[in-house]
């Protein structure tokens, strides 16, 4: 009886040993598979951000160029499908940011090659080309060459309604001063810039308002901006519910417009504006801008300060920069306000 009773116990022990061995074997096989996978990694892929970072580290350690950026630019000259062209441009952009010495060693011909991608039929290729040009624009010696593409970039922004393209194009244009020869084209695309500003895509709106704020400081473009037609709800951009980043930029824009229209140079001419113009929305007799500004003085600090600056510029529209104070009759606010 004792032998019979012990058999089940011995069987359980044997099963446990077998299970343990099986588990250990599975772990060992898994370990071998992982080890084999590590040893058999795929070839170096330049499209990976990690791989590009490794290139930069290798260059810094050994004090030599990796040649990766040149290889990518050369491959861009070959006929590729749109997806491949887009990925190559994406990798070039990363290389320009990470491999400074290699990027600086590039030539104007390389900029021309990248700029030619703006004529590609595929929007994703255009977007990546814009990003690459922006990366190269951080290198001073390429800025003049990149400025030559400004008119083409403005054309893309004004004719293609794509938020990602708008962001990429506007970021590029905001990265360097626009030359005077672009001003005629800027006048033509002003309505498109104003439409982007009034869209619902925050990142594109911020980039558009930054460009418009910069252009508002140009005497020969100020009237074109102020007379540009806007939607009847344009002042919604000044609502306290808007993101702080957008509100701040909109307020900077309003301040520059207010200062510009108050300058002696601008006041020397009697300008006429259409009823739906930006000027009427902001500075017309029926404008409710003052109410919107007063509601912003309880916003976050940078918005508060900027709102106050706009209020001050509106209170003295004809005396900014001329007198230290202005008479009450010049105020855009009611006495109670």
Automatic annotation (TrEMBL):
<protein>
    <recommendedName>
        <fullName>Armadillo repeat-containing domain-containing protein</fullName>
    </recommendedName>
</protein>
<feature type="domain" description="Armadillo repeat-containing">
    <location>
        <begin position="66"/>
        <end position="278"/>
    </location>
</feature>
<dbReference type="InterPro" id="IPR016024">
    <property type="entry name" value="ARM-type_fold"/>
</dbReference>
<dbReference type="InterPro" id="IPR011989">
    <property type="entry name" value="ARM-like"/>
</dbReference>
<dbReference type="GO" id="GO:0005634">
    <property type="term" value="C:nucleus"/>
</dbReference>
<dbReference type="InterPro" id="IPR042834">
    <property type="entry name" value="Armc12"/>
</dbReference>
<dbReference type="InterPro" id="IPR006911">
    <property type="entry name" value="ARM-rpt_dom"/>
</dbReference>
<dbReference type="Pfam" id="PF04826">
    <property type="entry name" value="Arm_2"/>
</dbReference>
């Amino acid at each position: 009886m004792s032998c019979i009773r012990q058999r089940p116990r011995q069987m359980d022990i044997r099963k446990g040993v077998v299970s343990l061995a099986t588990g250990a074997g599975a772990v060992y096989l898994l370990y071998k598979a992982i080890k084999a996978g590590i040893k058999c990694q795929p070839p170096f892929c330049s499209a990976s951000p990690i791989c590009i970072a490794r290139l930069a580290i290798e260059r810094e350690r050994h004090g030599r160029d990796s040649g990766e950026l040149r290889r990518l630019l050369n491959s861009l000259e070959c006929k590729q499908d749109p997806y491949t062209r887009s990925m190559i441009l994406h990798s070039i952009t990363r290389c320009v940011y990470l491999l400074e010495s290699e990027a600086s060693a590039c030539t104007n011909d390389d900029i021309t090659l990248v700029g030619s991608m703006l004529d590609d039929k595929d929007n994703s290729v255009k977007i990546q080309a814009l990003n690459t040009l922006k990366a190269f624009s951080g290198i001073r010696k390429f800025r003049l060459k990149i400025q030559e593409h400004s008119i083409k970039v403005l054309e893309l922004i004004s004719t293609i309604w794509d938020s990602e393209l708008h962001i990429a194009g506007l970021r590029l244009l905001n990265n360097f001063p626009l030359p005077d020869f672009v001003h005629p084209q800027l006048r033509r695309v002003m309505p498109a810039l104003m439409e982007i500003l009034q869209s619902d895509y925050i990142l594109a709106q911020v980039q558009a308002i930054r460009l418009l704020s910069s252009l508002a400081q140009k005497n020969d473009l100020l009237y074109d901006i102020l007379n540009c037609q806007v939607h009847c709800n344009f002042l919604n951009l000044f609502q306290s519910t808007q993101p702080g980043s957008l509100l701040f930029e909109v307020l900077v824009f309003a301040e520059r417009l207010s200062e510009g229209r108050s300058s002696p140079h601008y006041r020397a001419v009697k300008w006429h504006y259409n009823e739906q113009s930006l000027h009427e929305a902001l500075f017309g007799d029926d404008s409710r801008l003052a109410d919107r500004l007063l509601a912003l003085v309880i916003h976050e600090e940078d918005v508060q300060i900027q709102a106050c600056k706009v209020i001050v510029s509106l209170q003295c529209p004809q005396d900014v920069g001329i007198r230290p104070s202005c008479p009450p009759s010049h105020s855009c606010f009611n006495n109670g306000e």
